[in-house]
Structures are given as C-alpha cells and as structure tokens.
Amino acid sequence: MSNWLLAPLEHGFMQHAFAAILLVGVICGVIGTFVTLRGLAFMGDALAHAIFPGVVIAFILGGNFLIGALISAVVVSLGIGAVGQSGRLTNDTAIGVFFAGAFALGIALISAQKTYTRDLAGFLLGSILGVSRGDLLLTGTVGLGVLLTILLFRRELIVVAFDRTYAQATGMNVWLYDQLFLVLLSLAIVVSLQTVGNVLVLAMLVTPAATARLLTDRLQTTALLAATFGAVSGVAGLYVSYYAGIASGASVVLVATGLFGLVYLFAPQNGIITSRLARALHFSHPERDQFADGSEGELSVPGEQGDAIAPVGR
C-alpha cells in the first residue's frame, strides 16, 4: 500500500503536480463558496472563457500564459462590473457580451497561428504534469493573496452576498466589493488553468462548494469543507490519472463529482437515501402513523362544524 501511494512522488513533475492541485483545490473551494452563495456559476464559466485572448497574446509574444490570462481576466471582470452597474443592462447581459466578444477575439488571434494546436489543447484540458517551479510559485503567491483578501474583507463580502439592500442602506460601496469579488474570482480561475484547464475549471469552483453546502448551513464551515473537498478531489484525481492513464484534469473533476454524488445520497441530514431511511425507521407503520400530527404522534380529531382541528391528549 505504501509503495502504491509513494510511487508517483518519486517523480519531480508529480511532486509539482500534487502541490499545484492542493493549492488550486483549496483556493477554488473557498472562492467557490461565494460563487454558489451568490449564484454566479455562469460568471465563473464566462470568465474562464473570456481570458482566452490574454492566453493567446501571451503565447504569441513568448510570455507566461498565466500572466496574460491574469491581465485579461482583470480587464474583463472590471468591464463586466462597469456595464452591469450602469443600470440599463443586467449582469447576465454584460457577462454574455464580454464572454462572447473576448472568446471571439481569442479565436481570431489563434486562427492566424499555424503551430498553436498543441498549446491550445493544454490550455483547454490542462497540463498539470508540466507545472514548473515558477508556475508553482506564481500559483502559491496569487492563491495566498486571494485567500488573505477574502479573510480581510470577509464581513463585507458576506453582507453583499446575503443582503445587498442592507449593505447599501448601511453606506457600503456595493459596486466596489462586487469588483473586488470579480477580480478574486478571475485570479482563482487563472491559477486553475494549468491544472484542470479552461473547460473544467468551473467544476472546481462549483462542485466542492456544492458538496459542502449539502452538509452544513454555516458559511465558515462550508468554506472549510469546500477547501477540503477540493484538495481531496485533486489528490485522489491525480492518483487515478497516474494509474489509469487518463487526463488529469478530467480525473480530478470526476472524483469531485463522485464525492458530490455520495454526499447527495448519503449526507446525514439531507441525503436522499439517508433521509428516506430515517423516515422509514421513524414511521415504521404507515397505516398507524397516518393520523399523527407530526413530531410526537399525537392524534387529532375534528371538532364541531366550523371549528379548527383540535389536538387530543393535551
């Protein structure tokens, strides 16, 4: 068993891959908690595609694609926020405009390149086995900045997410915190590109957080569980990829989806199977208990005509 666990770690590129996926799992789990809370899954998907031109330009100029993606993500997120706050268009409309426009620009740029196919495949599907020490350092630095910023402004981000009207009434600059969140989301997406790729990055933002949400109603606990699920899915997915010979990004996402399915079915309080089983054990005689009024099984009988139902035994 120990040989099975330690064998992948004998390779330097696998050590980098495990470190990178752990960072990405934690970062995406935490920021994904706010994504699911605010219902911004479409925003995450749009930003993941809107940074495409930045990646293409970086490769054309011979630069680091993470830097190009980062610049593009910040520009697009600020543009979406500015248009969405104008009052004439909704955020969904602004997202659609920038998403389509930026992605089309990336396609236009790439169509002029004849040797970009392999690099494009790595961008779309991830190339975690090619993570260098420089990439790892950049991922860790950006990720630490994202987590520290969320920790520093957690109260404001929570208030804006739960009750925007109350936030505005207290004098809070809602637009500013919206922009801050969009930038943080963009950064999380950028650092995830090399691990799971552009196509699957949305799953790492949403699935671990959705899994955690099925287990608790407390925001802090949800964030911690989401980070844990993200990290576990990443590590387990890499092992599956290593031994099964399948794409690492897809493997990580499939493990995360499998965890979601298990929790959805067997969560202690809200699981589909566990809740039905608990109800079946509690009401073991449906014919007898159909007259129960609820928690203690008290019987109810009708009163006189026009009277309310009156409980018996009180």
Written account of the structure:
- The protein has 314 residues and is mainly alpha-helical.
- The protein starts with a helix and ends with a strand.
- The chain has 15 helices and 2 strands.
- It has a two-stranded antiparallel ribbon with strand order 1-2.
Summarize the entry for a quick read:
The protein is an all-alpha fold and 314 residues long.
Task: Give me some keywords for this one.
314 residues; mainly alpha; ABC transporter involved in vitamin B12 uptake, BtuC; 15 helices; 2 strands
The CATH topology of the domain at 11-203, please?
Answer: ABC transporter involved in vitamin B12 uptake, BtuC
Helix and strand string, N-terminal first? HHHHHHHHHHHHHHHEE
Question: Can you name the CATH architecture of the domain at 11-203?
Answer: Orthogonal Bundle
Task: Report low-confidence residues grouped into runs of 5 or more.
Answer: 295-314
Number of helices: 15
- Report, as a whole number of angstroms, the end-to-end distance: 62 Å
Mean of residue pLDDT values = 80
Strand order of the largest sheet: 1-2
CATH class of the domain at 11-203: Mainly Alpha
Rounded radius of gyration (Å): 24 Å
User: Any idea what the CATH superfamily of the domain at 11-203 is called?
Assistant: ABC transporter involved in vitamin B12 uptake, BtuC
Work out the helicity level. Answer: over 70%
The proportion of strand residues reads under 5%
Q: Return the structural class.
A: mainly alpha
Number of DSSP strands?
2
Shape, per Cα inertia axes? globular
The biggest beta sheet is recorded as: 2 strands, antiparallel
